[in-house]
Amino acid sequence: MARGIGQGRATALFTVLGMTVGAGMVQLPLIVLGISSLVSASHLAFKMLQWAGAAYLVWLGLRLAFTSSATTAWQVGDVTPLAAAREGMIANLVNLWPIGFMVAFLPQLSIRMGTQ
């Protein structure tokens, strides 16, 4: 919502596309291979993913703090569509909630549809 308010609909749309399509292209094969279940079962892998998410948020904060002006980072047109999609994808990949949802929901869907 911040992207939509601060940078316009187009940038928000590419951010959402990165969060859904881009991250989905990475997360779905991991679920099919069972790797995401291992991440949720392994305490070390889960903590590493949490720390990766925290490091990404710190990096975004430092990048914003050290720009020449705090307002220039949020002006319309400042972020290219590819950069918006990339940032949305990274934000979704290091967020534990989408992975947890997919691990809990998608295997049940495949069982109900008779594909397993």
Structure, described:
The protein has one domain (2-112). It has helices at 2-7, 9-33, 35-41, 43-65, 81-93, 96-112. It is built from six helices and no strands. With 116 residues, the chain is mostly helical. 16% of the residues are buried.
What's this model, at a glance?
The protein is mainly α and about 120 residues long.
Reported for the largest beta sheet, the result is:
none
Poorly predicted ranges: none
Number of helices: 6
Gyration radius, rounded: 17 Å
Mean pLDDT: 77
Which range best describes the helical content: under 10%, 10-25%, 25-40%, 40-55%, 55-70% or over 70%? over 70%
Number of domains: 1
**What portion of residues belong to β-strands?**
under 5%
Given the C-alpha coordinates, what overall shape results?
A: flat
| Main structural class | mainly alpha
Element string (H = helix, E = strand)? HHHHHH
| C-alpha end-to-end distance | 38 Å
Please count the beta strands (DSSP E, at least 2 residues each). Answer: 0
Q: What's the helix and strand layout?
A:
Elements: H1 2-7, H2 9-33, H3 35-41, H4 43-65, H5 81-93, H6 96-112
Helix pairs in contact: 2-5, 3-4
What attributes characterize this protein structure?
mainly alpha; 6 helices; 116 residues
